Structure formats: structure tokens, C-alpha cells
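DM from R.C. (forwarded with permission)

"hey, sorry to bug you on a friday — could you get me a structure for this? deadline for the figure draft is monday and I only need the backbone to look sensible"
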Amino acid sequence: MEAAGWIKALNVTSDNLDTNPWLLNVRNGTLDVTTGEFRAHRQEDMITKIARVDYDPQAECPAWKQFIREIRNIYGIVYYFWAKERIEGY
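My reply, with the result:
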């Protein structure tokens, strides 16, 4: 173990790990959730966590899509009343 301290590449602190919150590690690679890019795992990403699922860009997600539709409807109603109050001077 002492010899490992002499090797610069092995000297890593917790500040070096998981630095990019937008990279999602899954079993079959890494997904950049900001760009949608999916790529092979890279050691230099220093990601310590992994979701135990495979990324499948063709996967269907009907429950998620329904949730988004419902939230948009609720948000639309709330926004309507907020805008109406602002316009009418409340």
C-alpha cells in the first residue's frame, strides 16, 4: 500500500471523484444527460456510482410521458390564473 502512494495516478482524493453531476453511469456505458450523448465508460470520468440498468434509446416510457402531460396541464392552469391576476391588477 505504501508503494501506491508513490504513483501519482493512484493519488486521488474524494474531490476528484464524481465531479460532473450530468454524467449518468449505467451498465452499458455513460450518458451525458445535458447532450444526450451515450458513450463507453471512461476511467478518467472517475464516476464511482452506477445505475443498475442498461441504456436503451428506443425504450418506451408511457408513465413518464403521462406524468409530463399532467404536469403541463396543471402548470398551464396555474399560469393562466397567475397571468389573469397580474393583468387584472390583483
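R.C.: lifesaver. DSSP finds one helix and three strands in the chain.
me: no worries. Residues 19 and 46 are 8 Å apart (CA to CA).
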